[in-house]
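Interim report, section 4.2 (structural modelling).
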Amino acid sequence: MSGMLEDIDARIAAVLAADGRCSYTELADKVGLSVSAVHQRVRRLEQRGVIRGYAARIDGEQIGLPLTAFVSLTPIDPAEPDDYPQRLLPLPQIEACYSVAGVESYIVKVRVASPSALEALLAQIRATANVSTRTTVVLSTPFEDRPITVGGATPESTTRAEHT
Amino acid sequence: MSGMLEDIDARIAAVLAADGRCSYTELADKVGLSVSAVHQRVRRLEQRGVIRGYAARIDGEQIGLPLTAFVSLTPIDPAEPDDYPQRLLPLPQIEACYSVAGVESYIVKVRVASPSALEALLAQIRATANVSTRTTVVLSTPFEDRPITVGGATPESTTRAEHT
DNA sequence: GGTGAAAAACATAGGGT
DNA sequence: ACCCTATGTTTTTCACC
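Predicted structure of the assembly:
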């Protein structure tokens, strides 16, 4: 296989998924390589697009965006070109856009300040994308953005042995 | 108001949401404060829980988890205590869990290696949580995890002026 | 809150195995 | 591919405003 991920790369990815600001020193310690070897691998992972970037996880409730919702989109005119994601991209309240199998075509995840802001956003979505919408309001988020687990590689699998 | 976010903290959060590995030096430059002032503010944001942590964004397709789905959960026994999130927590394939308003009670987002892995996971979810499930398979993800925009504060709003 | 400077830790590049 | 060493940067703490 060509695109498969080596075990050690999987562990690096798992560690960084759990702690994006982990230092190369600590990372090296955790996966059992030297700092430079780890650094090299991380750069390759970034280059290959396995690591797409780094982000701080922000608590939406504390920054004035307490209302999250999932909005399912159904095209009104089936003859239209399918460029919905592009049309939705300019709306910054839309955090994610998924093309899905099912009665509806897309699901987007949105974050807004209030019910009236959601109302306004839905109107914008319908207008800019020419779709009908079905909205599911999130009441609470027990957990979110959990670090990936790839092939049994959890962040705390290995600790480097001393080599003195 | 007590919990409201200052403008400069909002900008810090926005920058770190867009680039979680941004150095304090660069951050200080972008928001127009000294390195130590920014560092102090970031620590306070972390402490207050505004910044919940940092994560590398991993491309699921490249690490052997190409299949994403949203699974809606409906409790079978309405008399049961509502501890579904706790019961789902041990399943690492579940990346997020939302309590929602609507016909169903929860929506969880899952990542798996294959259709058969999805089938197995759904069986596990039904068994451990005593729910019925409705699954929407993600065909593609035009965009995801876009950095937050809080009160007009985008990462590239301000650059520090030289003070020589 | 904010600043600036010093010490410690870290990132990064080069050369060797 | 990996390790080690050397250099420049960044983080972190601290005394002061």
